[in-house]
Design brief:
- Belongs to the glycosyl hydrolase 3 family.
- The protein has 226 residues and is mainly alpha-helical.
- The protein has one domain: TIM Barrel.
- 42% of the residues lie in helices and 5% in strands.
- It contains eight helices and four strands, in the order αααβαβαβααβα.
- Helix 4 crosses helix 5 and helix 7 runs parallel beside helix 8.
- The structure holds 2-acetamido-2-deoxy-beta-D-glucopyranose (2 copies).
- One 2-acetamido-2-deoxy-beta-D-glucopyranose (NAG) binds next to helix 4.
């Protein structure tokens, strides 16, 4: 009885929040630590040439295992071939990445990040929304809140827990070609929209599969004039 209880307790405990970060860090080699802090773009693991069929998994398993198992890479970003993929294809991509990760010594899940910046724009048939400059023009944070929730839900549904948005560079130069990705020239409005976007995307619980982690970007060396 006691043994059974201990096994159950351990299972519950081990599968929840019981990871001892200090012990894990102490067990890692320098190469493993450097690898965990390395994020590579999808190009590094992609099949070439691009498969004609959008149902085909675009991951080259040889390249994937080299990155994850030989180089200890901890994170991957971007969409294959710079085009939107089917939701089913994304799920295949994330599955083979996590399957490869499960063969690694430490089995720390690989973090995948994607730029869902005006809706989940790299998922076919996801809802596309206006870019941030137009949302700022509405002066309506509630719209931003709803859009962030829909974008998070659709991004998380393909197995991606991290969205590289919102862009919080203040747009100062109208001829800068990426001005449309900002919330414009007013720091108060940009800050307010950014706050609402982050809160609505992350919620209070990242285990909730409607939510994603966000990334405030780009700041240093970005925007124009610098
Ligand atoms: C996968 O990558 C390996 C190593 O570069 C290469 O030899 C092989 O042809 C690639 N396969 C595909 C389908 O791209
Ligand atoms: C998960 O988050 C969504 C959106 O923030 C919310 O509507 C839902 O109630 C949450 N689910 C749970 C189980 O907390």
């Amino acid at each position: 009885m006691m043994a059974k209880f201990c096994v159950l307790f351990c299972l519950w405990f081990c599968l929840t929040d019981a990871i001892d970060i200090d012990a894990l860090l102490n067990s890692m080699s320098l190469e493993e630590k450097c690898g965990q802090m390395t994020q590579v773009t999808f190009d590094v693991i992609q099949k070439l040439p691009q498969p004609a069929d959008f149902d085909e998994n675009p991951v080259n398993l040889t390249l994937l295992e080299y990155a994850i198992l030989e180089k200890n890479v901890g994170s991957i970003l971007n969409t294959p071939y710079n085009v939107a993929q089917k939701a089913e294809t994304w799920q295949k991509i994330i599955k083979v990445i996590q399957d490869a990760t499960a063969k690694s010594r430490l089995r720390i899940p690989t973090i995948y990040g994607l730029d869902s910046i005006h809706g989940a724009n790299y998922i076919q048939e996801a809802v596309l929304f206006p870019h941030s400059i137009s949302l700022a023009g509405s002066f309506n944070p509630e719209l931003t809140r709803k859009i962030a929730q829909i974008t998070s839900l659709e991004t998380r549904a393909i197995g991606v827990p991290w969205n590289f948005n919102p862009v919080l560079d203040v747009g100062r130069q109208p001829v800068w070609p990426r001005l449309f990705e900002t919330y414009g020239e007013d720091p108060y409005l940009a800050g307010r929209m950014g706050e609402v976007y982050v809160q609505a995307s992350q919620g209070n619980d990242l285990k909730n599969r409607s939510n994603v982690a966000t990334c405030l970007k780009h700041y240093i060396g970005y925007s124009f004039p610098f």
